[in-house]
Amino acid sequence: MTAEIAGKIFMQIPLGCAFFEMVSENTSHRNEYVLADANEAFLKYLGLDRENAISKNISLLPELTTDAPHWHTFFSQLNQWNHDMPLMVSMESRTFKVTATKLNENSLFTVWDEITDTWQQYENEQKRNESLSRFNDV
User: Fold this and answer.
1) pTM metric for this prediction
2) Distances in whole angstroms, Cα of residue 129 to Cα of each of 42, 63, 67, 126, 134
């Protein structure tokens, strides 16, 4: 596959995809990352504007300040994360399954799959099962 074809797939895939570069290891046990590149789905998921987001430190992106606790929790977990398992990230009323791959010591590639509807169904089933369990205990 040529780089041109891979680039077109990256930009058009309906899953959110983003490359991050670590710019420093922070003493607060959280590394600092720059959004090196992202496809349109990722930018749309997070409400980011390409021009204002690419090459910016993720902790400084103003669009993410409303979700800052979730966003920073996600990045703080990356150091301890078992990359064989996806992370669930909730932002506002949306839930994403995020899979990350370390390309090298300082580069990270992430795939964001919105699973909001599936997650809501899962939570509703849990509530229903809890109600049934309480009913059976009576």
Assistant:
1) 0.73
2) 34, 38, 31, 5, 9
